[in-house]
């Protein structure tokens, strides 16, 4: 699934659509996405000059966007928005730098009518970079959705 297809599922747009493609998807259960970090990503200018490092919170956002694709792909949630409701057990294990390709995996642990929890893992070159449990709330349909 490319970015144009992703945009049909989640409301994020540039400069805040932070996933390039979906590699695997089982709606409501599991997703694997990919993001290749370019040297000109806007956040590298200030984080940190001379030593660019991916902000951990943006990696968590990438994981959340992948998870949103997973959940909002279900028929009953199509057109809705998913919001953060909690971030637990977050660990930042290694730096992510410009040029790295980040694999973003989310496995749903719980999914109810308006809430869910997913186990999230971001890896670079097969090594865990970020892990967390993300809790989300499923909100109303996005503006412009019927």
From TrEMBL:
Database matches in SUPFAM superfamilies: Thioesterase/thiol ester dehydrase-isomerase
UniProt key word RNA-binding: no
Pfam families registered for this protein in UniProt: FabA
Record's subcellular location: Cytoplasm
InterPro entries reported for this sequence: FabA_FabZ (IPR013114), HotDog_dom_sf (IPR029069)
Gene Ontology terms, MF aspect: (3R)-hydroxyacyl-[acyl-carrier-protein] dehydratase activity
BP terms from Gene Ontology: lipid A biosynthetic process
GO cellular component, one term: membrane
The enzyme's E.C. designation: 4.2.1.59
Catalyzed reactions per annotation: a (3R)-hydroxyacyl-[ACP] = a (2E)-enoyl-[ACP] + H2O
Keywords of this entry: Cytoplasm, Lipid A biosynthesis, Lipid biosynthesis, Lipid metabolism, Lyase
PANTHER family (UniProt xref): 3-HYDROXYACYL-[ACYL-CARRIER-PROTEIN] DEHYDRATASE
Record function comment: Involved in unsaturated fatty acids biosynthesis. Catalyzes the dehydration of short chain beta-hydroxyacyl-ACPs and long chain saturated and unsaturated beta-hydroxyacyl-ACPs.
Sequence similarity: Belongs to the thioester dehydratase family. FabZ subfamily.
Name of this chain's protein: 3-hydroxyacyl-[acyl-carrier-protein] dehydratase
Gene name in the database record: fabZ
């Amino acid at each position: 699934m490319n970015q144009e297809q992703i945009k049909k599922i989640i409301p994020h747009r540039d400069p805040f659509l932070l996933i390039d493609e979906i590699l695997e998807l089982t709606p409501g259960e599991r997703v694997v996405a990919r993001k290749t970090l370019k040297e000109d990503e806007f956040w590298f200018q200030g984080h940190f000059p001379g030593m660019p490092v991916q902000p951990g919170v943006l990696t968590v956002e990438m994981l959340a966007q992948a998870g949103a694709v997973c959940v909002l792909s279900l028929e009953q949630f199509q057109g809705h928005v998913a919001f953060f409701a909690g971030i637990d057990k977050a660990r930042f294990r290694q730096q992510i730098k410009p040029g790295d390709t980040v694999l973003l995996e989310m496995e749903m642990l719980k999914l109810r009518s308006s809430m869910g929890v997913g186990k999230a893992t971001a890896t670079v070159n097969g090594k865990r970079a970020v892990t967390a449990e993300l809790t989300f709330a499923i909100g109303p349909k996005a503006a412009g959705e019927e």
